[in-house]
Design goal:
Layout: H1 7-21, E1 30-34, H2 40-48, E2 53-56, H3 59-72, E3 77-80, H4 89-95, E4 98-102, H5 105-118, E5 124-127, H6 144-153, E6 158-162, H7 172-184, E7 189-191, H8 198-203, E8 208-211, H9 213-216
Bound molecules: pyridoxal-5'-phosphate.
Family: Belongs to the pyridoxal phosphate-binding protein YggS/PROSC family.
InterPro entries: Ala_racemase_N, PLP-binding_barrel, PyrdxlP_homeostasis
Function: Pyridoxal 5'-phosphate (PLP)-binding protein, which is involved in PLP homeostasis.
């Protein structure tokens, strides 16, 4: 009897299909498996299948789960995808390999200080508030040039731009806009697309898609 595809294989196949349509190399799209709220037992099968990029949105939750899993799988790359308070910058720099939520000058200062202290440079995506929704965080579009300048001045490696478009609106125009902003600023990375829209994001240039529900099922509670 043939085994059914795992959720990881299904998402990888969808990434391959969307990349082909967009005439892109599927290897240029990093799948960040968003494991927030899910316990180590839910994460383990993906690790066993060979997946190594994972995303968490809370520093404290990640501190509880990942050091143990990383002992077994040292090649794991941890991505911080949630809003970061400046007072958690040190912990974030210590634990994460990539930060997707750099969005304000005070965080540039806090992260630069933490990186200097730990002698570790963590690549950061600058999160852009493409939908003009204050509550999600993200740098206002008008402030982006200044924030990028500050980050570079502080020796923070800028990996690219990230966005979290408004829910329940067609996301394609926001993805296209982020792609254009990245191009204007000569940045490689575009962190955009979630379970419901990562195919669209890939067609519009995503280099990092952040997929939770399609891999792990629905999250138990509000996050
Ligand atoms: C939770 C989350 C995701 C994943 O969302 P799904 O719809 O479960 O794929 C992606 N990006 C961010 C910033 C998130 O907080």
């Amino acid at each position: 009897m043939e085994k059914a595809d795992t959720p990881l294989q299904q998402v990888q196949a969808t990434i391959a299909k969307a990349s082909k349509i967009a005439r892109r190399d599927p290897g240029d799209v990093t799948l960040v498996a968003v494991s927030k709220t899910h316990p180590a037992e839910a994460i383990a099968p993906l690790l066993v299948e060979g997946h190594r990029h994972f995303g968490e949105n809370r520093v404290q939750e990640a501190q509880g789960k990942w050091p143990m899993l990383r002992d077994v799988y040292p090649a794991v790359q941890l991505h911080l995808i949630g809003q970061l308070q400046s007072n958690k910058a040190e912990d974030a720099v210590a634990l994460f390999d990539v930060i997707h939520s750099l969005d304000r000058p005070s965080l540039v200062t806090a992260l630069a200080k933490a990186m200097d202290k730990q002698d570790k440079r963590v690549p950061c995506f600058v999160q852009v508030d493409v939908g003009e929704e204050d509550q999600k965080g993200g740098c206002p579009v008008a402030d982006l040039p200044k924030l990028l300048h500050l980050a570079r001045d502080a020796d923070i490696p800028v990996a690219g731009l990230m966005c979290l478009p408004p829910f329940d609106i067609e996301p394609a125009p926001f993805f296209a806009f982020l792609d254009k902003l990245a191009r204007d600023h000569e940045l490689e990375g575009r962190s955009m697309g979630m379970s419901g829209d990562y195919e669209t994001a890939i067609k519009l240039g995503a280099t990092h898609v952040r997929v939770g529900t399609a891999l792990f099922g629905r999250r138990p509670a509000l996050d």
